Amino acid sequence: xxxxxxxxxxxxxxxxxxxxxxxxxxxxxxxxxxxxxxxxxxxxxxxxxxxxxxxxxxxxxxxxxxxxxxxxxxxxxxxxxxxxxxxxxxxxxxxxxxxxxxxxxxxxxxxxxxxxxxxxxxxxxxxxxxxxxxxxxxxxxxxxxxxxxxxxxxxxxxxxxxxxxxxxxxxxxxxxxxxxxxxxxxxxxxxxxxxxxxxxxxxxxxxxxxxxxxxxxxxxxxxxxxxxxxxxxxxxxxxxxxxxxxxxxxxxxxxxxxxxxxxxxxxxxxxxxxxxxxxxxxxxxxxxxxxxxxxxxxxxxxxxxxxxxxxxxxxxxxxxxxxxxxxxxxxxxxxxxxxxxxxxxxxxxxxxxxxxxxxxxxxxxxxxxxxxxxxxxxxxxxxxxxxxxxxxxxxxxxxxxxxxxxxxxxxxxxxxxxxxxxxxxxxxxxxxxxxxxxxxxxxxxxxxxxxxxxxxxxxxxxxxxxxxxxxxxxxxxxxx
Length: 480
Ligand code: SF4
Hints:
- The protein has about 475 residues and is an alpha+beta fold.
- The chain has two domains: about 15-245, Aminohydrolase, N-terminal nucleophile (Ntn) domain (Glutamine Phosphoribosylpyrophosphate, subunit 1, domain 1); about 265-320 and about 330-440, Rossmann fold.
- It has 17 helices and 23 strands.
- It has helices at about 30-40, 65-70, 120-130, 140-150, 155-165, 250-255, 270-280, 300-310, 330-335, 345-350, 365-375, 410, 415-420, 430-440, 450, 460-470, 470-480; strands at about 15-20, 45-55, 55-65, 80-85, 100-105, 110-120, 170-175, 180-185, 195, 200-205, 215-220, 225-230, 235-240, 250, 260-265, 265, 290, 315-320, 340-345, 355-360, 380-385, 425-430, 445.
- α4 (about 140-150) packs across α5 (about 155-165), α7 (about 270-280) crosses α8 and α7 (about 270-280) runs antiparallel to α14 (about 430-440).
- The structure holds iron/sulfur cluster (SF4).
- Iron/sulfur cluster binds near residues 446 and 448.
């Protein structure tokens, strides 16, 4: 399925966005809804909101975009809410795996929303099942929820600390109890999480773009191993697990995060523009125009143009209304491939030597189609320039890449990839260049899919599976 998935684009896929919010005096579900819409890019297959009202947790979730799942919020009454928007690989895309996950015990109840991937799910699931847990889903997120609910007798904040000692991997989690919203982040801070202030209340979310529609102001990033506690007393933050070296996913800066979000103090848009500037220095090209692959290639193409002096030119338009769908294209449409999504502006392309700027090459299927489309429209040369360094290793921390053997850069030399995609030349930004563009030391990032050095140890069994199958997040849980 992956290899031919040109319909949705050959992109690594983010696995979720989370939010937690307290809006004293008003309905939190409404604010959660608008924040989730701002996080829609992080997952388009299912969405869910849980609220607490009258000492109880109520929840609704469904398949599809946030706006399709929630056309009415009248059943979700309460001043505190958490929300989740999910991407999942095809097989496990079922409502049972949608989040938040609701867990009840004799001590209390919670709802949990998770972004990321645990690497010790199998071990924890085995333990939970041995203890008699009735696991309802294949998601590692349910493991987090079950462990939390089993430790609620310690108090919810202590329960988080206990659970953080047990779970290993990448996670940004929001939790709702009958009187509290929590947010916590793994000790390496791989997946992003930020906290903000509303005119009345507080919010925690995967990205700061979720703050904009609700008028919240960014306070800070949630630190590695930190927990945010929001209740009637306001906001507190505590260190729930000892922080390790901070290893934010570099791919958040390159592609996943929305350009209007902030991470590590940088506006993502600006960081991407600087990546384009670095790329122009490292991988110059003799050409007439710089064309971005919309939308994600735009800031980097502007940066490339600025440094190279080659004019920026939009050479294709993106249909912004195509989202993941269960309606499959017929064979003829499949042959048209990328044209379902991108439409060339012929007059701007014809007879031109083009620098084509994109964010990443995974399997190279889409790049190949775009290059062909430009050449078919009369482009004289296409010089492909990519802001992500070559992706050679799988991700175990919540990003759905291909299996290792499907990754173009894991199996081909740069020259072979260049020939494969039919480009005149190909150049990737170096890891050092990408890191320089963000303005933080390389030690502050996870770079594992580029350099193979995993900041959180990955069990052998899991890495073997990734070589054959890919989609580590789902397989890690389905398999057990
Ligand atoms: S392996 Fe790559 S995609 Fe995964 S968290 Fe690390 S940098 Fe991000």
